[in-house]
Fold:
Amino acid sequence: MTPEILAISCYVLIAVLLLVCLKVSALRRIYKITLIVLTSGFYIISWWAISDLKGWATPANLPETFRVHWIHIEEPNKTARREGHIFYWVSAKDLEGRLETAPRAHRMPWTLEDAEAAQHAKDRLNAGELLDGRISYNVLGSKAETTEARVGDQGQGAPDNELNRPSFEFLTVAPPSLPDKKVPIQ
Structure:
């Protein structure tokens, strides 16, 4: 049983218990309706509130600029009918280049091009480099040129949603520049 189904089952059980208790209680109808509405609202609010606390990777888009902490690649498995994903653990950066958020896991769909770039970035992380990333939308080429450039071995062009999909650039973080130290005269 998945955690979502377990949580929903608990919510339904509590709602049924509330309805049974209200059925046999002597409360006025307006109080019963208010309790039912409050309980239903609580379920919706709590579901939204815990979605960020679950620890699962979010399918939301990556920030425009970010610091890469780690990358995990899950390749697609055709026999198990599982799609591949690339998981990025990143922190958003502000305009000045400072880290703006705590690290967050992002799940992106697997493509060969992104998997190769992610593997290269992961190798650089393993070598001890600090990496920043940014989203690149490949807007320089026209749509026709991009389709011709992406023609694969099977003679088919990439679908339109592939053409508009952002790619990522990974950049090595320059070491911090420190001010010159003055040597005291002895």
